[in-house]
Write a structure and sequence with these properties.
The protein has 258 residues and is an all-alpha fold. It has a single domain, classed as Farnesyl Diphosphate Synthase (Orthogonal Bundle), CATH 1.10.600. 75% of the residues lie in helices and 0% in strands. Helix 3 packs antiparallel against helix 4. The longest helix is centred in the last third of the chain and has 29 residues.
């Protein structure tokens, strides 16, 4: 966890613990690799909701629900399309689909318990859009590197930006950009790490995305630096600053934050 404010850290730790309770299923975990919690996106959404003066208990409901949806989508993403003939392979694929359905469906239950039908509708729209873009990406041909990465970023950010029309007012455009830029940084940072790992073990990549990743990360940093001044909540602004610095210290990019 990167947040530095003790109260924020405590609150987010409780939310993560609640997510872990919902995804705990010994039988599924025995056969299926559960995706990692998307911690960066979770923290950025957490900060957005705080900046929008959403009540603490609501923030918990919203983050748990959104994270469960994301984990469900990520489970489905891992389902192999390669025909499986062994008992273990067939079971793994079936359980991956079922685990994804289980996690995703829980958000209906959690949000319906607090009567937030409007947000259920917004999240459902974003899930529809995510699956629509995935279909375009995976069935289409001839996408450029830039187009492919733009589509991936929409897939990564759609759940989180769906909160903006509901809670943001004049800062909506600023927060939309902040969420998108952090999603870009997260994906490109992972891409750079995979590339460097491949280089370390002598792999050669047929599609060298490295220069594009570097360029996009630098663009995202500049975008984020330009948006920080528009935030009103100083605590939130400082945490956004720390999120950027934390990635910087990992050696993902070299620009300093001033």
């Amino acid at each position: 966890m990167i947040l530095t404010n003790p109260l924020f850290r405590e609150e987010l730790a409780e939310i993560i613990e609640e997510v872990n309770k919902h995804i705990k299923c010994d039988y599924v975990q025995r056969y299926v690799e559960i995706p990692s919690i998307p911690l960066l996106r979770m923290q950025v959404l957490f900060l957005f909701l705080h900046d929008s003066n959403v009540a603490r208990e609501q923030i918990k409901h919203y983050l748990v629900s959104t994270t469960l949806i994301q984990l469900g989508l990520d489970c489905h993403e891992k389902v192999t399309l390669v025909p499986q003939y062994s008992e273990g392979g067939i079971r793994n694929r079936q359980l991956s689909v079922l685990a994804g359905d289980l996690f995703s469906s829980k958000y209906y239950f959690l949000l319906s318990n607090i009567g937030d039908v409007a947000l259920i509708r917004e999240l459902a729209r974003s899930i529809y859009r995510i699956n629509e873009v995935k279909t375009m990406l995976y069935t289409g041909t001839g996408w450029s590197k830039e187009e492919s990465l733009d589509m991936r970023n929409e897939i990564d950010s759609a759940l989180y930006t769906s909160f903006i029309p509901r809670f943001a007012s004049e800062l909506g455009l600023i927060w939309h950009s902040i969420i998108e830029q952090f999603c870009l940084i997260e994906r490109y940072a992972e891409g750079l790490m995979d590339y460097r790992l491949g280089q370390a073990i002598g792999e050669k990549s047929e599609n060298d995305f490295y220069p594009l990743f570097q360029s996009r990360i630098e663009q995202s940093i500049q975008e984020l630096k330009g948006k920080l001044g528009g935030l009103r909540n100083e605590e939130v602004k400082q945490e956004i600053h720390h999120l950027i610095e934390a990635y910087q210290k990992q050696g993902v990019f070299s620009h300093s934050i001033t």
